[in-house]
Amino acid sequence: MQIYMVGGAVRDKLLGRPVNDHDWVVVGATPEQMLELGYLPVGRDFPVFLHPQTREEYALARTERKSGRGYRGFVVQSSPDVTLAEDLSRRDLTINSIAASAYSSSASELFDPYHGVQDLQAKVLRHVTDAFREDPVRILRVARFAARYHDFTVAPETLQLMREMVAEGEVDHLVPERVWQELARGLMEDKPSRMFEVLRACGALQVLLPEVACLWGVPQPPLHHPEVDTGVHLMMVLDMAARLQAPLTVRFACLAHDLGKGTTPADILPRHIGHEERSAELLQGVAERLRVPVDCRETAEVVAREHGHIHRSGDLGAGPLVRLLERCDAIRKPGRFAEVLLACECDARGRLGFDEAAYPQRPRLLAVLAAVQSVITREIAAKAAAKGVTGPQVGDLIHQARVEAVAQWLRATPAPTPPTPTSEAPETPAQP
User: What residue numbers bound the domain in which 281 lies?
Assistant: First the structure.
């Protein structure tokens, strides 16, 4: 039995990056031997075990043979005869196909049959063998690694192989849960725009997210968007979300906030009248198709529908401000509203020349929410009940009290700076 550290732990150690998880390959062993040593079996599709003390994963060396479409169409063969080189040959990228003996810490003793160290030094993402084409998830993984190691390039032959896989229909057979898992992880990387650039370059974006793919080449008003191209703007917004260390809910909201611009009639471009509602509708289709978690879906829906109104909220009086908060369900869900505002800030600052611009709407609306929250609704309800007032009339009284609280806050607060084209104004009138 020989044990080797493989994959991301070796790669990141060589790159000087933090190592969070260790993966191990065991060569020359049987499942029975692993059980005798106290390892706990956990693999459903192939022999994987948990170490009895560390609980890290130890997988028996294996080979795979394609047997059907998609990433599940494989026959796995594991035996003591499978060599380390054979096991490494089935991995996705050369930088993930480097092994280090568990019994040595010397870099000179690395097992690197596919020149992964060389590609690390050259900053290249390159597939190991032609077996790469057998698993379409690897397309998403390459794109995600491009977002993490954003100064790496995808080898031309690897990009060509990915294009062939898309043309052969392999991407069509990916299950929604796996697509979302990889997209979510890529959105949380340091430069998420790189993931979408790679997916677009190989044609996979058009298959997986056609609502996003069609945004490139769609013009926007130069006054509000000096970058003009909607797809370019979207990538800048995603990278701003990463820069501001936004959570996944915010990053997905950023991804979906302008989907409606891809369906704007050509005769009204570069204006995008009504794109907010169209974005919210398209978002629902994307969320259903990819089975996006509820928290991500709900935050994105509010951002898509209301981001234009939030951008111009400095012009609103007390009544419209309270109605904006009510439409965002900010009073019941203040934490989500804070995320909505962060996504709007990413949208405003994710434009050419505005990455360092202030976004006063976020602190202002949080202060407005605090004024609304200062209204003690139970006291209003109790007084109304004492007078025999019930039902919707109680709600009207609470609403009016909130409007008055915001009006008092506005009177005590200096007027905001006159609006400038630092954020996109909605193409549709504010909702009453």
Answer: 275-412
* The token pair that represents 305 in the structure block: 């529908």
Q: What percent of the chain has pLDDT over 90?
A: 78
- pTM recorded for the entire structure: 0.89
The pLDDT of residue 85 is 93
Q: In this structure, is residue 241 part of a structural domain? A: no
Q: Report the CATH number that the domain containing residue 109 is assigned in CATH.
A: 3.30.460.10
Nearby residues of 328 by Cβ (< 8 Å), 6 or more positions away: 302, 306, 337, 340
Considering the domain boundaries, does residue 309 fall inside one? yes
- Model pLDDT for residues 100-136, shown as the tens digit of each residue: 988 765 556 899 999 999 999 999 999 999 999 989 9
Does residue 193 lie in a domain region?
Answer: no
Q: Which of 284, 278, 339 is nearest to 305 (CA)?
A: 278
Given 72, 101, 122, the domain boundary residue is 122
* Structural domain count of the chain: 2
Minimum mean pLDDT range among 257-261, 379-383, 422-426: 422-426
Q: How confident is the model at residue 210 (pLDDT cuts 50, 70, 90)?
A: very high
Please report, for residues 37, 100, 188, the alpha-carbon distance to residue 53 in angstroms, rounded to integers and kept in the order given: 11, 21, 31
Give residue 66's pLDDT: 59
Q: Burial-class residue 33 by CB neighbours within 10 Å (0-12, 13-18, 19+).
A: middle
How far apart, in whole angstroms, are the C-alpha atoms of residue 255 and residue 253?
5
Q: Do 64 and 87 touch, CB atoms closer than 8 A?
A: no
pLDDT the model gives residue 216: 97
Answer with the one of 65, 93, 122 that is the final residue of a domain: 122
Instruction: Confirm whether 422 is domain-assigned.
Output: no
